[in-house]
Amino acid sequence: MIHSLFLINASGDIFLEKHWKSVVSQSVCDYFFEAQERASEAENVPPVISTPHHFLLSVYRHKIFFVAVIQTEVPPLFVIEFLHRVVDTFQDYFGVCSEVMIKDNVVVVYEVLEEMLDNGFPLATESNILKELIKPPTILRTVVNTITGSTNVGDQLPTGQLSVVPWRRTGVKYTNNEAYFDVVEEIDAIIDKSGSTITAEIQGVIDACVKLTGMPDLTLSFMNPRLLDDVSFHPCVRFKRWESERILSFIPPDGNFRLLSYHVSAQNLVAIPVYVKHNINFRDSSSLGRFEITVGPKQTMGKTIEGVMVTIQMPKGVLNMSLTPSQGTHIFDPVTKLLTWDVGKINSQKLPSLKGSMNLQAGTSKPDENPTINLQFKIQQLAISGLKVNRLDMYGEKYKPFKGIKYMTKAGKFQVRT
Questions:
Q1: What is the pLDDT of residue 40?
Q2: Which of these, 122, 105, 412, lies nearest to 270 by C-alpha position?
Q3: d(CA 40, CA 378)
Q4: TM spans, by residue (predicted)?
């Protein structure tokens, strides 16, 4: 299926390549570089590029392009999902997935890739199974390997690979039995100048950290499961039970894993948690402009909005800005024309505002369109879709585990037009 994998940094250098079936020349990436030049941003590079003899499928994460080369037509999402698994595995192994970290641990990277794909087909993609096969690097292990010439490859096959539950190893034991679930929702929205919602959708995930002894069988039920649309499950979830009863029934992997990801796109279901009042005026004849924005909470169910960051790409004609924030700090870069305002926490009693004037280049005409306001924020203990976990039950083991569920909402691509 996958012939080769190339890792390309933001500068366009191939810093790592791995081949499974046959060696594919680096020149195949020229088609990718052409597409990269045509794209205005790295995120806009087409994920599937057709060449005369190959298909190039890529994902862009952590400022690295992961480009897979295939020769026969396969479902593209199959390959893209595998590439995301590769990134997640590197992040789990090394703490961060960066060019420096991959170069520093190049031997482990090759060992992991060799286990994840067998002759071009996915074999072991579960992180906890891989960690039994290939030990994660530590300073002590690296020193020992350097002296003795040994590798991080384990001595025996993981027990999970031989069982009917390949994502969980046998004989797991913990003194404290705990299961934690994080419901994280990211809201993407475009708001027009009058405050009406043009588009809004929610991408949600439920991440789990399960440290339970033995072979527990869990069921997780929701107050309102019909909210969930376009759901993608971890292989451990029994799909038929979900289809018939809308209950998640599964034997969990050991440790951290993503239980499911979902999408809420129905316009009427997406609540907008913040609003922005804005008054950005450019006058035709004057070299001065007026700037004023205020940020406030909208539908937050009484929760506090934290970590608010406002960024605005100002027009080229703006030379300088003289602004006063009621809270937080702001920076305007006169070279890139980027205004950044670090607001922090929103106090609903005294709303944060940023007011002042803009110095415009003499003789320039009024900009064709006003700038777009980009917002970043997070709200703890709130799932903006209204999703709520009803209960979590455990079968198959006698002990009583400690269970915890956290909710969080954060901004994805959240834009307000002025």
A1: 82
A2: 412
A3: 28
A4: none
